């Protein structure tokens, strides 16, 4: 099966247009139909997530005790209720609004980010993955949905929302096309992993080519793309105050299609999503098949975003009810069964096996002998994290940065758990941050385990790439989590480490080694999300109100239960 394509001539004609798409039926969408000036959200028509509390569906959950993280919730309450102002930072402003002198890297970063822009029919629609021309391009000249997210946030924070609007609508259009791998048709709601623009000067046309997994390594569809799309739509709405984009029938339908894929009934006994290896940022075989933390955290965050974006019409109300029920089940499951701290580690160490009843403590029949030796030394006295995967007789105890940071931002983590995650990062700074932030996962797998888990993948050798490599793009997620938990000094320390080398090394994609000391052996330079991740981290520290774009405050009525129930009922 070849890649999907759409031929568009310069005079505006479109071939092979799907008759089911109304807005895009005969020509490229006219962006002038959307207002240039932000308008206030219709609060009367659509209440916020926090007003439309999960407690509207009674679940009989008990209250949680206050923690030091609660003190910062008051700040977050304010941040989440405002729209980030369209202030410009970096290249366009010699001095920030808060009196900080911009770092010399900032201007270079903005210049490089703008050179990565991709245009379709004269409009910017995204940023390519990398500007490195020294290596074979492979798919690094494409616009990836997940890679564009930090770029989009940077442009939103800089008061340039148009490119984000263009991207949202362009990927929405690609969603509507038929998607097949060999003879199998993918779900209608699947979003592309990436797309590129091909220029034909002879025919005077531009062609969009999208990849839904049929060209990806392992031929795996991107589960995370749809979640990132919803998260970005909410960030656009929060930043601009313009709800008309999200209220478009096409955007509402796009959200419902994504949610339909995730909320469909099947043989699942857990509220988590069952996924294949390579379905997210870790897009190669790395033993994350099953119920990976990255997907579960993004799923939770996308559900929370959808809850405030869906209209309260007949179709929307049905999905809102389904979303709320899933949020209850998912938050309970993740907070209880994915969470690991010293006490829980000790409990697992003492588990009995082969329990059969509703009163079983070891519900997943995890063998205590399967506990890796490293986790006992890694776990500090004060601290904890969401482990990588939980399934039948399986617990992946590896630390995954993206999933834990998203858990904090979405309030999947309780305030106490969010504080514990930050405590862990501080306690294990050398292991998780080292000389270059930030470990995508910890620890690396090696030797016989590496051969079995990765299939002897030469790119994912120990302490390289996804196998314990250090990824600068994760700076923005760490910074946002630090601000939300009232620990900005952690982010500042990590950013200073990155500033010592990142620009001098040519903005690499990732670093290798236990401490992240070496430029990755196959890392592309001028990696766009390394650049935009740094910019977003800097701008967020300068103006913490930007946090409202990507963070959700804890729902006061969702009272978490941290004690395991004897019943396996959701």
Automatic annotation (TrEMBL):
Q: Which reaction does it catalyse?
A: Hydrolysis of terminal non-reducing beta-D-fructofuranoside residues in beta-D-fructofuranosides
> Which Pfam families has this protein been placed in?
Glyco_hydro_100
GO annotation, biological process: sucrose catabolic process
Q: Give the Enzyme Commission number.
A: 3.2.1.26
Is the keyword Membrane assigned to this protein? Answer: no
Q: What SUPFAM superfamilies does its record include?
A: Six-hairpin glycosidases (SSF48208)
List, alphabetically, the InterPro entries matched: 6-hairpin_glycosidase_sf, 6hp_glycosidase-like_sf, Glyco_hydro_100
The source's domain of life comes to Eukaryota
Q: Where is the signal peptide?
A: none
Question: Which molecular function GO terms apply here?
Answer: endo-alpha-N-acetylgalactosaminidase activity; sucrose alpha-glucosidase activity
Going by the UniProt record, its keywords in alphabetical order are: Carbohydrate metabolism, Glycosidase, Hydrolase
Q: What class of enzyme is it?
A: hydrolase
Role played:
Invertase that cleaves sucrose into glucose and fructose.
Similarity section: Belongs to the glycosyl hydrolase 100 family.
Q: What is this protein called?
A: Alkaline/neutral invertase
The source organism is Fraxinus pennsylvanica
